[in-house]
From TrEMBL:
Signal peptide range in chain numbering: none
Pfam families: tRNA-synt_2, tRNA_anti-codon
The protein's name: Asparagine--tRNA ligase
GO annotation, biological process: asparaginyl-tRNA aminoacylation
One example GO MF annotation: ATP binding
Reaction catalysis annotation: tRNA(Asn) + L-asparagine + ATP = L-asparaginyl-tRNA(Asn) + AMP + diphosphate + H(+)
Enzyme class, UniProt record, top EC level: ligase
Domain Aminoacyl-transfer RNA synthetases class-II family profile: 135-442
GO cellular component: cytoplasm
Tagged with keyword ATP-binding: yes
InterPro entries in the record: Aa-tRNA-synt_II, aa-tRNA-synth_II, aa-tRNA-synth_II/BPL/LPL, Asn-tRNA-ligase, Asp/Asn-tRNA-synth_IIb, NA-bd_OB-fold, NA-bd_OB_tRNA
Amino acid sequence: MDIRIKKVLQDQPVGQRVAVAGWVRTRRDTGGFSFIEINDGSCLANLQVIADKGLENYQQDIKNLATGSSVVVDGELRKSPAKGQAVELHATKIDIVGGADSETYPLQKKRHSFEFLREINHLRPRTNALGAVSRVRSRLGYAVHNFFQQRGFIQVHTPIITTSDCEGAGEMFQVSTGRERSGEDHFFGRSAGLTVSGQLQAEVYALAMGDVYTFGPTFRAENSNTSRHLAEFWMLEPEMAFCDLDGNRKIAEELLKYLLADVLENCAEDMALFDKFIEKGLIGKLQDVIAKDFIHISYTEAVERLEKAGDKFEYAVRWGADLQSEHERYLSEKLFRCPVAVTDYPASIKPFYMRLNDDGKTVAAMDILVPGIGEIIGGSQREDRLEVLQSRMIETGIDPAEYDWYLDLRRYGSVPHAGFGLGFERLVQFVTGMANIREVIPFPRTPGSAPC
Ligand code: 4AD
Ligand code: MG
């Protein structure tokens, strides 16, 4: 049985015989030896293998072992005399499982730009930075489940194919059987699309099971080429019955702090890499986020603060207009220098399902803005009054008959309830300091993305 390099470096079982399987990062030859660095993806660090010229395939194979080749190494772990590593593997046998042509292998021993790596999407997880992002992303997903399961939330698998355009923004990709010409309309006789959010279905389960969450891929057919938008992204959406906007905001803050603390503790080696090469001071910044209370202001206050900031924005600030990302970043990055929860937005710029406030003009909406990213969370308390919901639907051009099932939730045992959506890639960006969202999802789907 192979042992993972992470375990070898953690336990440092000097004297033990082990087999390690991985990919060659570098090879260096001296008189009678080769030093081979191998990586198996389990951690950032490579394991140094010492191959003696006495090995039977040394002359013809090992001495020509190219970067990118896959190997299984049997050997004995010894204390390393070199700086920066505790143990090294003295090989008794090296099997070359798959060779590589060093002339054509695209990953050379130098730093490649992220733009270049996007063109070789299928090889980029073999680099230090993208490997580290993958481990951090995996850990964050695990921590999400821990957080909610520890608090008694039930996970619901909401559908990918749906007829409801939750956000009402006309950004639903259409699903088709490909047989429309024979009389079928898109999806077996009706039109359907890929979900933009699992919220409406999460509400169904919250109104039966209390606290629930859904976590999966969502899709938006927005043709925007920015460092924070994808056509396919993952969203975490908790939905809580018997919960108002304040309760919603508190859970969102607790969740973000929990996730940051978890990654700082469990991905320390990868986080140190980001802190050193991607965003200087990242770890300290995340520790500050954990230590301090988030700021809470209303949309109206936010607009006043932005107006006071003068005319430094490309887009003018005006009550009734949505906040642009430059405004969001000004609030969280410059003015408060910490995460900011902005609540109670004008009803006219928000979807039909948000609860209308007593002023009749604003809704119980909540966005959480973080430095470097802007909006990371969007949520609200939901409209739980049947008549108000029906008239909000009509106002926003939605046919209530299409959402009769959703209205039933208000007809039978309606309760105040609230929830939010955390953009998972924006979270990974925030945690790793990666400037572009294309670096934090394994296979980015954007206009013009690489095929793979
Ligand atoms: O603000 P949004 O559109 O809210 C909803 O979809 C609600 N139905 C969620 C809910 O209340 N259950 O999206 C939520 C979050 C945003 O704050 C952002 O982090 C992320 O999803 N997001 C995107 N991430 C990447 N690419 C895109 N195109 C995104 N659109 C939204
Ligand atoms: Mg939003």
